[in-house]
Design goal:
The protein has about 210 residues and is an alpha+beta fold. It has five helices and ten strands. Helix 4 runs antiparallel to helix 5. Keywords: Signal.
Length: about 210
């Protein structure tokens, strides 16, 4: 009887050891790096206040918000975001991206545990759209998905979040990224002054805003 008890204890110990090692491996592979954000200084306050005021997008565009909620669960994970396969940036807990897209159909994508999860969105000129990136937990797997949310729900999440700096990088686009006209996304204006400059300069606004980053 004592021998059986000893074997049972050894089995439990080995099982716990395996679980511990696997958990550590999952945490290490998903270890988060802090995303650069507008979180300090007067200029950062202006940037956040402008985005959180949910301004009307510039003429010819729709507004797109990606929001990562402030939660302890999944805080150790960075997950990449894409629009039509074009890289937008890495998310971090309590951060959001504010982007612009051309009206029409766009493929919104988030890095998950294996590959990406896709969500098709329809966008109309002059309107804002909001998507929450949710971390999905399954046994030994930490994935992510995008969920469309209402303006009211988005506003509540934005109050506890700060705007992440745009990370556009073509070297990180997906292999099947769509570069055809009207696809992908671009950084939204940082402040009201930037938005006014956008309206004055029309099609040259994107290049001007890039020099302001």
């Amino acid at each position: 009887m004592n021998k059986i008890k000893t074997l049972v204890k050894q089995f439990k110990y080995k099982l716990l050891s395996v679980v511990a090692v696997a958990t550590c491996a999952a945490l290490l592979t998903g270890c988060a790096t802090r995303v650069e954000s507008y979180d300090k200084g007067v200029e950062a306050e202006k940037v956040n206040l402008y985005a959180k005021s949910l301004p009307k997008p510039p003429k010819g565009y729709a507004g797109l918000y990606f929001i990562r909620e402030v939660l302890v669960q999944g805080a150790n994970l960075n997950k990449d975001l894409y629009v039509d396969g074009q890289f937008v940036g890495e998310t971090y807990v309590g951060r959001f991206f504010y982007r612009l897209v051309k009206p029409g159909t766009h493929l919104l994508q988030t890095e998950s545990s294996i590959g990406v999860n896709n969500l098709v969105g329809e966008f109309k000129e002059g309107e804002n759209y909001f998507y929450q990136q949710e971390i999905v937990y399954r046994p030994m797997v930490q994935g992510a998905r995008l969920v469309k949310i209402s303006e009211n729900d988005a506003f509540k999440l934005l109050m506890n979040a700060v705007r992440a700096k745009d990370q556009d990088d073509r070297t990180r686009d997906l292999a099947d990224a769509d570069y055809s006209e009207g696809k992908g996304s671009i950084p939204a204006p940082l402040t009201g002054d930037d938005a006014e400059a956008w309206q004055r300069l029309g099609n040259k606004a994107q290049e001007v805003l890039k020099t302001m980053e």
